[in-house]
Amino acid sequence: MNEYKLSEEEQEILDAFEAGELKPVLTPKRKKYLQSIAEETFKKDKRINIRISNRDLTLLQRRALEEGIPYQTLVSSILHKYVSGGLHDVMANKAFERTQKMRR
Asked: 60-72 burial, b if ≥16 CB within 10 A, otherwise e?
């Protein structure tokens, strides 16, 4: 098993967890709310058609195979993360940072 260097605070939390001192605070109302969000996230009720290069499709299929999921699911996940703010265009961010430096 891997050995990790924990901070003092992290070690206290781990010790409390392993001793059974931590209790969940998930209320029935919060659980119902989270379940409804999860259901909406996984509901696939629209179909789209896109054209992409053969090379990109092959790379997507290869990556999906590595993840053990269908490539359509991978594409859907990527799009969801992007529109919800969890995935950022690194190249666009770098270009933005360069323009900000030039303005200084």
From this structure: beeebeeeeeebe
Asked if residue 85 belongs to a domain, the reply is yes
Nearest alpha carbon to residue 47 among 13, 76, 11: 76
End-to-end CA distance of the chain: 49
- Residues ≥6 apart with Cβ < 8 Å to 89: none
User: Is residue 1 in a domain?
Assistant: no
Tokens 């179909």 appear where?
A: 47
Range of the domain at 67: 8-103
Q: How many domains does the chain have?
A: 1
Residue 70 lies in a domain: yes
Summarize the confidence of residues 20-48 as an average pLDDT: 85
Closest C-alpha to 61, from 48, 70, 53: 70
Is a pLDDT exceeding 90 seen at residue 15? yes
Report how far Cα 37 is from the mean position of its chain's Cα atoms. Answer: 15
* CB hemisphere CA count around 96 (13 angstroms): 6
